[in-house]
Amino acid sequence: MIREPALSPSARFRVNSVEGKEGRDEGGQVAQNRDAAINPDTRLEFQARQLLRRWGVVFPRLLNRESQAPPWRDLVRVYRRLEARGEVRGGRFVAGFSGEQYALPDAVQQLRAVRRAQPEHGTVTVSGADPLNLVGILTPGPRVPAVPGNRVVYRQGVPVSVTISGRETSLELPLQGQAG
Questions:
Q1: Which residues make beta-bridge pairs with 152?
Q2: In the chain, N or C: fewer CB atoms in 10 Å?
Q3: Predicted local confidence at residue 21, as pLDDT
Q4: For 131-158, what is the mean pLDDT?
Q5: Rounded CA gap, 52 and 24, in Å?
Q6: Are 75 and 112 in contact (CB under 8 A)?
Q7: In the prediction, which pLDDT does 101 show?
Q8: Domains in the chain, please, with CATH?
Q9: End-to-end CA distance of the chain
Q10: How many C-beta neighbours within 10 Å does residue 154 have?
Q11: In angstroms, what CA-CA distances link 25 with 10, 29, 71, 91?
Q12: Per-residue pLDDT at 18
């Protein structure tokens, strides 16, 4: 007879949840899966932190890129609490966007370094499926569909042309000081 190694109750819950079996949450109640055992506030804080790790700076307009983001009003509650604890910074970090913005301390330092750095004159091309494809979300104009064959060309952080379905289109450069 082969015996399974002894697991702690929390490890057993994780194993059972992954296998789709019933598990028990912290209070000993039967949960159908791992997500059912997570407190909604805990899930919201996890999502808020995940967005900060992904983007560095979070503000309402950026959430248009996220398909499963919670409402901004719920995230703001979490970000204000994290700011009060000193874990994130609140302020205006990205010019041209109104409303509250929250950033990780490291992201604030990186933004300052980029602002002080000399501009590079080369271009960067990214796939339409890349998360950096924020054309039409953070910049004026239509969105570039998140399809691998599509391309966006940036010069000094500004999109200058897009390729959609094999057709390249030059974008008008915004006037100095104007943002979407």
A1: 126, 162
A2: N
A3: 45
A4: 87
A5: 30
A6: no
A7: 95
A8: 8-38 (no CATH), 40-116 (1.10.10), 123-170 (no CATH)
A9: 67
A10: 18
A11: 8, 6, 26, 38
A12: 44
Copy the structure tokens of residue 55: 């983007």
pLDDT band at 114 (very low <50, low <70, confident <90, very high): confident
Neighbours of 119 (CB within 10 A): 9
- Both tokens of 148, joined, read 């691998």
The pair of three-digit structure tokens given for residue 172, joined into one six-digit string: 């008008």
CA–CA separation, 138 vs 173, rounded Å? Answer: 14
φ, ψ at 119 (rounded to 5°): -65, 145
Which residues lie closer than 8 Å to 123 by C-beta, 6 or more apart?
153, 154, 155, 160
Contact assessment for residue 16 and residue 31, using Cβ atoms and an 8 Å cutoff: no
> Does the pLDDT at position 91 exceed 70?
yes
* pTM above threshold 0.85: no
User: Lowest mean pLDDT: which of 12-16, 89-93, 94-98, 122-126?
Assistant: 12-16
